[in-house]
Structure formats: structure tokens, C-alpha cells
Amino acid sequence: MLSYIKGNVLAKTQDFAIIKTKEDVGYKVRLKPIDFSCLKEKEDLELYLYSHIKEDAFDLFGFKTLEELSFFETIISISGVGPKTGLAILCLGSTSDIKQAIQNKDTSYLTKVSGIGGKTASRVILELQGQLATDILGDNSIDEKEDALCALLELGYRKNEALKALSKVKSSTPEEQVKEALSNL
User: Fold this and answer.
1) Domains of the chain, with CATH numbers?
2) Stretch 140-168: mean pLDDT, rounded?
3) pLDDT of 66-119, one tens digit each?
4) Average of per-residue pLDDT across 23-38
5) What is the pLDDT averaged over residues 10-30?
6) 38-62 burial string, b = 16+ CB within 10 Å, else e?
7) Residue 137's closest CA among 171, 180, 160, 168?
8) Does the pLDDT at position 139 exceed 80?
9) How far does Cα 141 stand from its chain's mean position?
10) How confident is the model at residue 19 (pLDDT cuts 50, 70, 90)?
11) Separation of alpha carbons 166 and 137, rounded Å
């Protein structure tokens, strides 16, 4: 799987850019329209990539930051949301704006994307709220609760369920965190 590319912009169209690496290989990479507006031909560029492989295609989607790539992968993990729709969702605004709309259960925000109706928007919000529970835990808490999270995943709980349960935990040791989280599940 390709996950990173560095090169310069050989050409660009409305939907994609061709990035030429120093080995003289050109890769067709899809980007958000806002990222296209900043591109100039022959300009150096570094992108994190998501590789989408199916029977009849091999598509690359490029992102300027790992945070964007990670959020994109979270979005497309939802049943019925493919990479093109995921990219369109990212075009709605910054990742923090999109996460805020999801936390506020704002379906009208997501229905601005072509192909997403009220039912799909509700499903996206429902599934992403659990996956965005890592934001509730905070960065330091995630490090402290990583062992407990791994233990809950080993026990067969889904990541979003485990994160939600751990967000309510006040214990300090991983063993106590797991016991307290299990009582919250």
C-alpha cells in the first residue's frame, strides 16, 4: 500500500493531480478541491495517502496532514460511505468543524454533501460519535488508558464502546480501569 508521496505537481485537473516522484514515476492522486486551489504545476508537494483498491480501479487520495488522513479513514469505515463521499465530507470544513457538527448531531451539516440524505447523515453521526470518543478522553488520558483499551478490545468489545466506557473511568491502574469500564458497558 502506498501511504506517502513526495514529488512535484506534473499536472492537475479538476479532480486529481499527477505527482511526479524523483524516480520519474507519476501518481494520480485525488485531493480536496480546496487543496487544488493552492497547487501550482512544478511545485514540490508532500502528501499522506489512502490507497483504495477494488476490482477495476486503484485510486489514491492525498491529504496534507496525518490528522486529515486518519479522520478520512474513520469516516469511510462507516458502511455506505466510500472514499469519494468521505472526501466530500472533508470539504465541508475543518476536521474540528465536522467533529463539532457530529457531536451536536447536526444532520443538516452533513446533508450538504451530494449523495448523503437524512438517513445516511443520521447513521454517520451515530457511528462517528462513538469513534470520536477519543476526543472526550483527551490526549494524556488516551496514553494512560491505552493498556485498558487494548484489554477491552481483546475481550471482544468494539473500539467505540470501549472508548466510551473508558471516558467515564476515574481509576489509575490499567487493571482498575478495565474493571470500572466493564461496569460501564
Assistant:
1) 4-63 (2.40.50.140), 66-131 (1.10.150.20), 138-184 (no CATH)
2) 73
3) 989 999 999 998 888 999 999 999 999 888 889 889 988 999 999 999 889 989
4) 86
5) 91
6) eeeeeeebebbbbebeeeeeeebbb
7) 168
8) no
9) 21
10) very high
11) 8
Distance (Å, rounded) from C-alpha 117 to C-alpha 59? 25
Residues near 170 by beta carbon (within 8 Å), at least 6 away in sequence: 180
